[in-house]
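Progress note, sequence design subtask.
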């Protein structure tokens, strides 16, 4: 029985072994990294610049694939310079993003597995009533409600950690003008006031009406870059506005605000979704995830194709250290046809003069000699491998030199 089980496992392994495991793991890891970068910079200037760099990179790869030497050389130089420029310009954003990757970050947070916040109706009613009470007093405020997307990496400044229960007294105290946190946003995670005084990314929307100030631009900015919701109270006009997906609109009564919040934070479609499901990891934001996997796969295809590029070339054969008393009899191989494999960039600059075959005859003896050729005999530049050689074996015959005839004086 044990022998049959071992044979069965062996057959199963033989079937699974041809599967491209390394390529699949490579694509999965890079897709995860690229997606994590995307959700942190989407809607920002960095995203627009990165899109331009990606287009340059695709043009560079396409030019190399077609064999456009000059175009690929120019695009490659521009692409390299653009990447360095992005690192210099956006060093602050890059540093902030890297600070989020630490061993203390919960796995569910890192993978964006957190379920959408579903605040109790009592809490939403309290927020709606408090918002209009503050608007009547011309007290400015900004509330941000986290949903699926983890918005902490998007904050320009995290503010002060509270992690306190929401209450009208707490909200009014935080946004009272003398307090040091009144100019920032109140970051609401799950059912609690998580942070206060948070600085949000501002929207670059040029069509925003002039009556809207910094708080409204911050509300639009955070909702452009995530699925968060925002509620803004204008201290100049005493108006309450709401923002979602980068769109801002006014609400007139506490009842309207309560309905707006309830539909989005306690909607019917969220019933039964309190627990995380593995399927949600795939289905949520499936379009950018699918685009990431496809893009990484195409990039891997291009790079693997470039690493496996081949070229054929004729190279000379050099015979070294022929014994003094011997000589090569008859015709000898003067050239070999070899195929070398490697990066297309290296192959583009490959010159025949860089390659040669050296046959060492120091230990040769009289008679027939056979030399099987390998990559040890062919001097290749770094980054290239021998794919084939014709002929694969050199045959020659060594004979003794005829005695030199003495001239009579």
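Output:
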């Amino acid at each position: 029985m044990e022998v049959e089980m071992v044979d069965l496992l062996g057959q199963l392994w033989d079937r699974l072994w041809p599967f491209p495991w390394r390529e699949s793991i490579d694509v999965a890891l890079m897709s995860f990294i690229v997606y994590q970068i995307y959700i942190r910079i989407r809607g920002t200037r960095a995203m627009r610049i990165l899109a331009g760099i990606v287009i340059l990179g695709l043009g560079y790869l396409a030019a190399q694939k077609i064999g456009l030497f000059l175009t690929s050389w120019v695009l490659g130089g521009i692409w390299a310079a653009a990447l360095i420029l992005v690192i210099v310009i956006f060093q602050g954003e890059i540093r902030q993003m890297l600070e989020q990757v630490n061993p203390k970050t919960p796995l569910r947070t890192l993978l964006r597995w957190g379920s959408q916040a579903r605040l109790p109706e009592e809490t939403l009613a309290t927020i709606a009533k408090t918002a209009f009470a503050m608007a009547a007093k011309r007290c400015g405020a900004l509330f941000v409600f986290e949903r699926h997307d983890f918005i902490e990496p998007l904050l320009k400044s995290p503010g002060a950690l509270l992690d306190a229960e929401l209450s009208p007294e707490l909200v009014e105290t935080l946004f009272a003008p003398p307090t040091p946190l009144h100019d920032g946003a109140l970051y609401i995670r799950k059912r609690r006031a998580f942070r206060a005084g948070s600085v949000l990314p501002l929207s670059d929307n040029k069509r925003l009406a002039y009556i809207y100030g910094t708080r409204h631009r911050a509300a639009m900015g955070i909702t452009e870059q995530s699925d968060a919701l925002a509620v803004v109270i204008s201290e100049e006009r005493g108006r309450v506005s709401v923002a979602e997906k980068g769109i801002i609109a006014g609400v007139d009564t506490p009842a309207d605000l309560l309905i707006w919040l309830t539909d989005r934070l306690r909607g019917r479609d969220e019933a039964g979704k309190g627990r995380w499901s593995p399927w949600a990891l795939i289905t949520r934001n499936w379009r950018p995830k699918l685009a990431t996997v496809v893009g990484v796969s195409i990039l891997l295809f291009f790079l693997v194709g470039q690493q496996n590029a081949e070229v054929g070339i004729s190279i000379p054969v050099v015979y070294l250290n022929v014994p003094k008393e011997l000589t090569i009899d008859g015709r000898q191989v003067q050239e070999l046809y070899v195929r070398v494999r490697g990066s297309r960039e290296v192959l583009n600059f490959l010159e025949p003069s860089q390659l040669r075959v050296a046959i060492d005859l120091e230990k040769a003896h009289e008679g027939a000699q056979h030399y099987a050729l390998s990559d040890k005999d062919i001097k290749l530049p770094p980054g290239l491998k021998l794919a084939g050689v014709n002929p694969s074996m050199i045959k020659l015959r060594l004979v003794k030199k005829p005695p030199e005839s003495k001239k009579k004086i």
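Residues 9 and 15 are 10 Å apart (CA to CA). Work on this subtask will continue into the next period as scheduled.
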